[in-house]
Design brief:
Layout: E1 16-22, E2 28-34, H1 36-45, E3 49-52, E4 57-60, E5 69-76, E6 83-89, E7 105-108, E8 111-114, H2 122-125
Parallel strand pairs: 1-6
Antiparallel strand pairs: 1-2, 3-4, 5-6, 7-8
Length: about 130
């Protein structure tokens, strides 16, 4: 039997892009990276666990902010090089800016316009810590 992780086309750094999507509304909340360990733990623990490229370590989404992503379903695309996590976003905030989604800017009139409100001040979310958890 093949390891399900071997079915994934990992990039040259051993990572795969992971898109978190709200399991009810379908809204794209964020994109991050996963290595084999992060994806294995995500499936095992049924919560989103990513690989932080900047810090070179596992990043359990919500470990600092409390905004955990509970996994409902894990999907792999046709080229086996992107995964989608259908999640329940606890607290309703996925972005470190305090917004529901990291995709809060819309291109209009030659510039990026911010269209989504801050639901919670990032300083109130991250007590003295780095805003990227």
């Amino acid at each position: 039997m093949t390891d399900w992780l071997d079915d994934i086309n990992w990039n040259s750094d051993g990572l795969v892009p992971a898109i978190a999507q709200d399991h009810k509304t379908g809204r794209v909340l964020m994109m991050a990276w996963m290595n084999r360990e992060a994806l294995t733990l995500t499936a095992t623990e049924q919560r989103a666990i990513y690989w932080s490229r900047s810090r070179g370590k596992l990043w359990r989404k919500g470990e600092e902010s409390g905004h955990v992503q509970k996994l409902h379903e894990l999907r792999l695309d046709c080229d086996a090089d992107v995964v989608i996590l259908l999640v329940e976003q606890l607290g309703g905030i996925a972005c470190h800016t305090g917004r529901e989604s990291c995709f809060y800017r819309v291109y209009a009139d030659g510039a990026w316009q911010t269209v989504d409100p801050v639901l919670k001040d990032p300083h109130a979310i991250y007590q003295g810590g780095h805003p990227h958890e």
